[in-house]
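Pasting as-is:
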Amino acid sequence: MRRKLIIAGLTLSICLSACGKNGAERTVSENLTTVSTSDTAGVNEKATEDASVEEDVFKEDVSEEEMASLSDTSDDDDHEEGTIEKELAEIEQKEAGKKELLSRAKTQGDINRITEDRYELWDDELTSIWNRLSDEKKEELEVDKNRWEKQLKANGVAARIEYLNGAMAVSEEISKKKNMTRKRVYELAAYLAEEKGESFEIPEEVKEDIESRDTKLDDVFKEFEGEWTITKNGDGDIVIKSLDASADGEAKWSFSYMGYEFTDLDVYGFCDNNIILIYNHREKEAPSYCWIHTDKDSDLIRVCRYSGFADFLETSSYFDESVIGERKK
């Protein structure tokens, strides 16, 4: 299933990239800086630890044998011996080896495959730990499990959309899902260790690394907070502000522009620079989506609305129609 996901994602990325203006791959941050997208050209070279590396730091090429070994998981299901802590330490060690391969990958295809393999490593472990929990614990966690799985998918989309479904979009989506799954593994591992009567403590360096990759919705809204004057494809202001909420289930943030009103309760997915809102359009049967993007180094914000999920995933087709706002001083 996951192998099919990455193949389908690559096919979608190639098709959509081929339809882009001047064949150029664009990132939202680049286009926010220039505002105009009509003459954007070149390939984005932004490198991230989980997704890519710049060509000038490539080491020896990844061999065919090393790439073939990615699918070798023959001993991954043997968890009869040792403690949960030891088991996860072994998973961390395996991922470190795959991370080293990533530093030597030269093609986007290899980057995507290695990134997918790192995700699969934690996804397989998540399944293994879940299967070993007691039926009582599974029943207790069922609602939270369903909520987490929906958020995993949604946040993956939020990470991908910044690259407008270009070549790097797949690896960004998978990296986000890998980070979320790794954190989830440790959460469930604590329950399993408790049921087995084992002591369980996450190593400090692992805890810090997980925390550094764990994006909180409240933190994203804080980065977005403020007022912008609409300068393109509309008029008026874009306003994002904190609300006086004290109880769970109450809205903590509001977002408004051009007659549309949203709160954080409308959030579908999010990542560092993106928030996706979902709402019922009065003239549409299917849910509609609103995508907001900004970044720490820009005084601009971009807002796009889409009538359905298919249109939403093909963001590049609607990119030039989005509303641009400039932060008020």
